[in-house]
Input
Amino acid sequence: VTGVQEYSAVTLERVCAALGIPEELVGKRKGSSDATAVSRINAFFKKIQTFQMTLAQAINTAIIDPAVGQPGKIWIVFNDPDPTDNLKEAQYVESLGRVDPLDAFSVMSAEQMRSRLGIDEDEYQKDTTGTEV
Output
């Protein structure tokens, strides 16, 4: 956020408190160390994930399922607000590939890895020029 110093500190604190946003996300340090700031931001991301899961379940059961007529056929999924979760997932899948040096897919197949990481099969088959591999 540009020009944070121009806002009244009290007003900014009230807005952050009302919205439940850590002040570190808007560029204001509240006398906390970097470790405390990281912990507060991670806790905020986890809270957002909880709200997203609850909202998605409510939308799926109250709106999408009655509209489609087949419960569970179509559902809404929100993106993960915490980018470090994607990195941890990728590192986990990579570590499974290193379990057996002779066979990278001994624990999990390539299709399972792509599915777990959310990689679309059609996009995976195309190289950077857009031609099929």
The two ends are 43 Å apart (CA to CA).
